[in-house]
Amino acid sequence: MDDEDCERRRGECLDEMSDLEKQFLELKDKLFRERLNQVKVKLDEVLTGKAGEYREPLATLQHNMTLRTQVAGVYRELCLQVIQHRYECELQGARQHLESERTLLFDAMKTELLDKIRRLEEDRQSVDLTSEWWSDEVKGKKCKRRNLSRPERKKKAALVSGPFIVYMLRDIDILEDWAAIKKVHI
């Protein structure tokens, strides 16, 4: 092989290579256009809802969506029921607390009033005893003048339970005060 053969061979190879490159580019463009047409056709099928590989996953997604929507609805209803039950429980607790506080207040007021009544009764008995004692003392002074000739008799001491008050007032003043106290507390 001489230089001419090599050059000729080289030229043939370059021509063949350029032909192959042209064919390759043409095939590549043709394949691209066919792929593009196929994608456009698939896109049209998807948009119209006719594509098989699109409809099956879409149906699955729609089924899942309806299930999730139903579950969310049930969950929402349960949450609303829980909130309603909590509200009713708090309302019932508040009512019970109110009733308890009302009962405690009533009992405290009743005890206080009974205490006041007891004290007033004790004061009344004390006033009665004191007024009896006072009137006996006053009568005793008047009667002493009459009974100088008679021997003195000792009276039995009255049994008094609890403390009593000796007033240095007239009987009428004590009775007026006692009546005023009784009116105020009734």
Automatic annotation (TrEMBL):
Pfam families: Sds3. Its main location: nucleus. Keywords: Nucleus, Repressor, Transcription, Transcription regulation. The keyword Chloroplast does not apply. InterPro entries: Sds3. SMART domains: Sds3 (SM01401). It is found in: Nucleus. Signal peptide: none annotated. The keyword rRNA processing does not apply. It comes from the Eukaryota. GO terms for cellular component: nucleoplasm. One of its GO terms (biological process) is regulation of gene expression. Belongs to the BRMS1 family. This is BRMS1 transcriptional repressor and anoikis regulator. It comes from Hucho hucho (huchen). The lineage of its organism: Eukaryota, Metazoa, Chordata, Craniata, Vertebrata.
